[in-house]
Automatic annotation (TrEMBL):
GO terms for biological process: defense response; lipid metabolic process. It comes from the Eukaryota. This is Fungal lipase-like domain-containing protein. It is found in: Cytoplasm; Nucleus. Transmembrane segments: none annotated.
Length: 374
């Protein structure tokens, strides 16, 4: 059965708006008189709102330059082995640095509860930095076996990390450039922070399914309608060509299909555990014939060769999985010394215990005399 494809960021945002989360976040910002303030929404959820001192906002609005993250160790939780340095706004990182100690303590207090983090303009920048910090602490808690750590929702208005107009964001790089080009003229002289009260009120009154029917074209697919809707939301639809929309539709179709074929991490780990049991069975059945190391290295009979070939197939699958897992872990912001989650740690230890002797046997089978540890 074929499935419909959607580009639903705007509709998803309207859904959040319909259940008061966005309104609660914006209300918290308007009631915040300090750099940050923790409140409880009417629904009982903690809301951490960031505001900005005027001098920092002026510095940010005046386009104060970017600085390297390696000069500000308070954001080293964002760095990765693959991308050790990143550029970050000087005013934002200095303000974050000023409050880092108390924000770290606050994160530890809030790690097990539901939390919405929000901010507007430069405050949105700080909200994103804090959310990444909170995510980092949640990773550390989970790696130590905690099952109670919760991750926050981050809602920003006019966030400079997402989009200067504050309405929506595109993952497609070509679309981002086209949108910025279309908006540069209309935003060039606007330094006033946008008031979102009208939009939020409109979201509450708008039906969630309202969208594609607003367009003149009645034959729009849900995916194409979603893309067009996003351009319309930021007032750039008239400046965007149909060719670009068509290219975006094709690219997002490929991305959606690809994402549907990706294993959920826990399921993939369980699949690898099943494969590992086959090699464990191979190991146990070779104990009476000199052990699985020698049987694997010096297989001679048809039965031994068949068993070895089956073990090799499973060995290759495991090697590829753990190589990819390590590479992906290197891409994740994580301080040196932080642990993997225990499930992966135990599974990886079992993998090395069982498969490593087979790799050593292969090494010597190929006539190599020295083995270099990795």
């Amino acid at each position: 059965m074929s499935q419909k494809m959607f580009s639903s960021e705007v509709e998803g945002g309207k859904f959040l708006g319909s259940i008061d989360v966005i309104q609660d976040a914006y209300r918290a910002i308007s009631q915040t008189s300090s750099t940050y303030q923790l409140d409880t929404s009417p629904s009982g959820i903690k809301v951490l709102a960031f505001n900005c001192l005027s001098d920092y906002t002026i510095r940010f609005r005046n386009g104060e330059g970017l600085v390297s993250s390696d000069k500000h160790k308070v954001v080293d939780f964002i760095s990765t082995k693959v991308n050790p340095n990143l550029s970050i706004n000087k005013a934002a990182v200095e303000l974050f640095e000023l409050h880092f100690k108390e924000l770290s303590e606050l994160s530890n207090q809030l790690i097990n509860g539901q939390l919405v983090v929000t901010g507007c303009g430069l405050g949105g920048y700080l909200a994103i930095l804090y959310t990444l910090l909170h995510q980092h602490y949640a990773d550390l808690e989970e790696s130590n076996g905690s099952k109670t750590a919760k991750r926050p929702i981050c809602i920003t208005f006019g966030s400079p990390l997402i989009e200067s107009g504050g309405h929506t964001a595109f993952e497609d790089q070509e679309a981002i450039l086209a949108v910025l080009d279309a908006m540069v003229t209309q935003n060039a002289e606007s330094y006033q922070m946008h008031d979102y009260s009208k939009e939020l009120g409109s979201i509450r009154k708008t039906a969630l399914y309202h969208g594609a029917s607003k367009f003149n074209e009645s034959n729009l697919s849900p995916l194409r309608a979603g893309i067009v809707f996003q351009f319309q939301e930021i007032g750039a639809l008239n400046d965007i060509s149909n060719d670009l929309i068509e290219k975006m539709e094709k690219k997002q179709t490929r991305m959606i299909i690809k994402s549907r074929n990706v294993y959920e991490p826990t399921k993939k780990l369980n699949d690898m555990k099943i494969i590992l049991t086959y090699i464990e069975w191979y190991m146990k059945t070779r104990r009476l014939t000199g052990g699985y190391y020698d049987s694997y290295k010096d297989a001679k009979s048809a039965t031994e060769i068949m068993g070895k070939n089956e073990a090799i197939r499973h060995q290759l699958n495991l090697n590829q999985y753990w190589k990819k897992t390590v590479e992906e872990n290197d891409l994740v912001p994580q301080k040196e010394g932080a642990k993997l989650r225990k499930r992966w740690l135990y599974a990886g230890t079992n993998y090395r215990r069982i498969v490593e002797p087979l790799d050593i046997a292969d090494h010597y089978k190929r006539g190599k005399n020295k083995l270099h540890g990795g």
